[in-house]
Design brief:
By secondary structure, this protein is an alpha/beta fold. It has 2 domains: 295 residues, Nitrilase/N-carbamoyl-D-aminoacid amidohydrolase (4-Layer Sandwich), CATH 3.60.110; 284 residues, 3-Layer(aba) Sandwich (Rossmann fold), CATH 3.40.50.620. It is 36% helix and 19% strand. It contains 17 helices and 21 strands. Strands 15-6-7-8-9-12-13-16 form an 8-stranded mixed β-sheet, covered by helices on one side. The chain has a 6-stranded mixed β-sheet with strand order 5-4-3-2-1-14. A 5-stranded parallel β-sheet has the order 19-18-17-20-21, with helices on both faces. α6 links the parallel β17 and β18. α5 packs across α6 and α13 crosses α15. The longest helix has 23 residues. The radius of gyration is 27 Å and the shape is elongated.
């Protein structure tokens, strides 16, 4: 015989610093879960304050306010169901060195019931890689923390990285008599991340043999995108329930537990009594399936992540509408399509800013794009401003080659126009540079880099094209004009200009950038993979010398394992060049 623990996992889109709003949203979920006969309601990592709170955690008043918010939430947890919620436990003393603190703070999970905080689990494994730097803020928790008796079931609480540790907290809890493990997460999206999470879950199931409830955060937070994907798995590896990705959800599941009771040495903290009578849940549709179902479409998940990231950045920062400079090229077209999917056409404005070098087909493509997407479109020619600046600068440029300077003047005029519209109407400017261009510095400071959010900053040019074709095949008819996808890429800042006059073809460039930026390979290692040595040396130098541009560019949405910004942090003033060192290691 088995009994069940009814769990509701609140996969919520929360906001960093919105303590009252986050608590209110969780209370709404709690009340619905209580009505559904839940024994336990689980919310994501640091749900009370949002993730990642970063240096807000260094403010004693912020930590104190998080404490107050948790106690406000606890006071309302007055029914049968218990709550496990992420918060900041411990104190922050003004000016204290966080590594010297004897009383935290800790990245914690509070257990709430009966109007009070029953206990608090302190995260043991603090990640310090990629986008994570939790040892900057938190102390690690100890081994052997309390287990909790919730509705007659012994529950172990863990937080995110704890589950990624071989023979770690989950296995320790199983040895001490736990019957179910709940795991609170703020696990950000990157390509292929869900499969990696499920590989980790499979490894813990093999070690511990216990049901695991994995609840993940949702929503865009600055560069990071949290994709949800919460799930509950039985001890044998079958999936009992899945929440959707990229959408809020309240996943309700009955976790089967052996009726023989916990191990005699479990000694859990008593939280709540046995479950009241309740209606059974409908059978899951589809029926429980194994982990690692390989049915994800990588282009679909990237598109969904970018849409969620745009919506989160725009809405959470208080913008009603956005504006995009439209060139008729593929990058501005995909950004417009993503913005319309995220916000709706009424909130997206396109601006054409033709110059003497703009082709008729590019202007027509931009106008057609706006028509297909249903967004507004206006045209502001830049020729008058270009003429005025050219005349003004002519005496200083006398006798000097002005080709690149003149190209950048045009881009900066367009940046001024977009920022003027932003100031006048409160529109957020979305920039359109992709990862390939960002990597090699193929952009203009204070020109096409001027704006509030770089939507495709982490998307290589070749993937931009793949995403556009994918979006056009979704059954809604053409969204991005086919002519945009077939013409040669061009900045149109000089006569007959094409990108491949300044850069290697993108199908050559992108693998080199991936190897150097994402893979951290040196130039000789990239050449050894079969790439042309001269092209590799050129690309590596371009990437290295463009660091100062990237540091001044707007934040961009992260969809890869190594995005510019949080993931990849290199000095601007940097004399190391792997190409030079490989040629003359002695210096």
């Amino acid at each position: 015989m088995t009994r069940t623990l009814r769990v509701v996992a609140g996969q919520l889109d929360l906001r960093v610093g919105d303590l009252r709003g986050n608590v209110d949203e969780m209370l709404d979920t709690y009340r619905r879960a209580e009505a559904a006969g839940a024994d336990l309601v689980v919310f994501p990592e640091l749900a009370v304050c949002g993730y990642p709170p970063e240096d807000l955690l260094l403010k004693p008043a912020f930590v104190a306010d998080v404490h107050a918010a948790v106690h406000r939430l606890a006071a309302a947890v007055d029914g049968h169901a218990a709550v496990v919620v992420g918060w900041v436990d411990g104190e922050r003393h003004p000016g204290a060195d966080p590594h010297d603190a004897e009383d935290g703070p800790w990245n914690a999970a509070a257990v709430l019931h009966g109007g009070r905080v029953v206990g608090s689990y302190h995260k043991r494994a603090l990640p310090n890689y990629g986008v994570f730097d939790e040892p900057r803020y938190f102390d690690p928790g100890p081994a052997g923390q309390a287990l909790y008796d919730i509705a007659g079931v012994v529950v172990a609480v863990t937080v995110c990285e704890d589950l990624w540790v071989d023979d770690g907290p989950a296995v320790d809890a199983a040895r001490r008599g736990a019957q179910v493990v709940v795991n609170l997460n703020a696990s950000p999206f990157r390509r292929g991340k869900q499969r990696r999470r499920e590989e980790v879950l499979a490894a813990r199931l093999e070690e511990a043999g216990l049901p695991i409830v994995y609840v993940n955060l949702l929503g865009g937070q600055d560069e990071l995108i949290f994709d949800g994907g919460s799930l509950a798995v039985d001890g044998d590896g079958s999936v009992l329930a899945r929440a959707p990705r990229f959408a809020p959800a309240e996943m309700t599941v009955d976790i089967p537990v052996a009726a023989t009771g916990p191990a005699p040495d479990a000694r859990p903290v008593a939280v709540s009594g046995t479950s009241p009578p309740r209606a059974p849940l409908p059978e899951p549709v589809p029926a429980p399936a194994p982990l690692l179902a390989d049915d994800d479409d990588p282009l679909a998940e990237i598109w969904a992540a970018l849409v969620l990231g745009v919506r989160g950045y725009v809405d959470k920062n208080g913008f009603d509408e956005v504006v995009i400079g439209l060139s008729g090229g593929v990058d501005s077209s995909i950004v417009a399509a993503l913005a319309v999917d995220a916000l709706g056409p009424d909130r997206v404005h396109g601006v054409l800013m033709p110059s003497r070098y703009s082709s008729d087909h590019s202007i027509g493509d931009a106008e057609r794009l706006c028509e297909l997407l249903g967004m507004s479109c206006r045209t502001i020619p830049i020729e008058a401003a270009h003429d005025a600046l050219t005349s003004m600068l002519a005496p200083s440029f006398d006798g000097h080659e002005t080709g690149l300077a003149d190209q950048n003047v045009q881009s900066r005029i367009r940046g001024v126009v977009l920022m003027a519209l932003s100031n006048a109407f409160g529109w957020l400017v979305l920039t359109t540079g992709n990862k390939s261009e960002t990597a090699v510095g193929y952009s203009t400071l204070y020109g096409d880099t001027a704006g509030g959010l770089a939507v495709i900053k982490d998307v290589p040019k070749t993937v931009v094209y793949e995403l556009c074709h994918w979006r056009n095949q979704r059954g809604e008819g053409e969204r991005i004009p086919g002519s945009v996808l077939t013409k040669a890429p061009s900045a149109e800042l000089a006569p007959d200009q094409r990108d491949d006059q300044s850069l290697p073809p993108y199908d050559v460039l992108d693998p080199i950038i991936e190897a150097y930026v994402d893979g951290d390979l040196t130039a000789p290692q990239i050449v050894a993979c079969g790439h042309d040595a001269e092209i590799v040396a050129r690309v590596v130098r371009l990437v290295d010398t463009a660091e100062y541009k990237r540091r001044q560019a707007p934040p961009g949405l992260r969809v890869s394992a190594k995005a510019f910004g949080r993931d990849r942090r290199l000095p601007i003033t940097n004399a190391y060049r792997s190409v030079d060192e490989a040629r003359d290691p002695s210096g």
